Amino acid sequence: MTSHTPPTGHDAFHPDLPDHDRDQDHEHGTAGSTLPLRARLHHIRADALDGDTAQTGGMRRFAAISGSSVGSERIWMGQTHVAPDTASSNHHHGASETAIHVIKGHPEFVFLDDSGGTPEEIRIRTSPGDYIFVPPYVPHREENPSADEEAVVVIARSTQEAIVVNLPELYVLGNEPDGAPDSEPDAD
């Protein structure tokens, strides 16, 4: 049996391809190209995340993958940072499914459950490496109880933009309070 050692260099598997990272567009995090957005791969560097996206009080969202940045049609992905000893405002994400991966800290995710007959606040405590799934329209908030450590999570949504509907209070899905805001999202 012979072993194969790949060539070395900037791209060991494809040494004949140009080094697109060298000509990186640092503002948008994608290599310069004349190809349409949806006809090429995109590299979004960690220092090129876009903070000009829908926001909720108490947290800061940064877009990486979106319709405007890479031409995505069915997914949005980015990061959320929650400062120490901070709770976000109550909100939901419209028709978007949201998957969350905890990177740093021990954020807590809070929602209401009335399966026992009376609405009760449920708190999910997490650790780095954990995942959370938030179904469409479910009101919730994120909290960071740590006195000195920022919480950072990676978020993926089933829509190409960060849909955020900020709410005055939590409620059980299907039991919206009178005068609750409609489901029109704040999206950027």
Q: Major β-sheet, in short?
A: 5 strands, antiparallel
Helix fraction?
under 10%
Please indicate the percent range of residues in DSSP E strands (runs of 2 or more). Answer: 25-35%
Query: Structural class from helices and strands?
Result: mainly beta
Count of discrete alpha- or pi-helical segments spanning 4 or more residues: 1
Strand order of the largest sheet: 3-4-12-7-10
Mean pLDDT: 81
CA(first)-CA(last) distance: 56 Å
Radius of gyration: 20 Å
Task: Give the overall silhouette.
Answer: globular
Unreliable sequence segments:
26-30, 183-188
The total count of strands amounts to: 13
Q: Give, in order, the helices and strands.
A: EEEHEEEEEEEEEE
Could you explain how this protein is built, in words?
The protein is built from 1 helix and 13 strands; from the N terminus they run βββαββββββββββ. The model is unreliable at 26-30 and 183-188 (pLDDT under 50). The chain is globular and about 60 Å long. It is mostly beta strands and 188 residues long. Helix content is 2%, strand content 31%. The strands form 4 sheets. A 5-stranded antiparallel β-sheet has the order 3-4-12-7-10. A hairpin with a 6-residue loop joins β8 and β9. The longest helix is centred in the middle third of the chain and has 4 residues, at 67-70.
